[in-house]
Amino acid sequence: MIKVLVSGAYGRMGQAVVKAVREDEELELVGAVDIVGEGDAGEVVGFGKCDVNYTRDLVTTINETHPQVMVDFTIPDVVFENASVAIKNKVAPVIGTTGLSDEQKKELEKLSKENDTPVFIAPNFAIGAVLMMQMAKQAAKYMPEVEIIELHHDKKLDAPSGTALQTAALISEVRKAHIQGNPNEKEKVAGARGADVDGMHIHSVRLPGYVAHQEVIFGGLGQTLTIRHDSLNRESFMPGVCLAAKQILGHKGLIIGLDKFMD
Question: Per the residue annotation, which of 3, 19, 137, 152 is the catalytic one?
Answer without folding.
Answer: 152
